[in-house]
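Hey, resending since the last one bounced:
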Amino acid sequence: MGPRRRRKPEAPQRRSASPTAGPSRRSAAGTSSSHRTRRAHVWLKEIRKLQKSTDLLLRKAPFARVAAEAFLVHLFEDAYLLTLHAGRVTLFPKDVQLARRIRGIQEGLG
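The structure tokens again:
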């Protein structure tokens, strides 16, 4: 055996600043990537099923009530503006009728 050569001392390796450089924390905790992909596949399958269906996810009645309330509020706002234009403070039925007539068939619902 010949004489041993001395190695140059290597510079210490720097650690990266990002915490994700090493193994991920989730994989260390036991969640495998196949489990995540399986869960994502289930979500995508459910999304596709819901996009294909025509069933309503929420009931019609609450939306109908909200639409009816919005229609009436807007109608009374317009009618009250007509009342103020006539120089009155009290809302009369003729103000509501005139507001529906000015709106037309599309917005007045008949």
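Residues 60-85 form the longest helix (26 residues).

Sorry for the duplicate.
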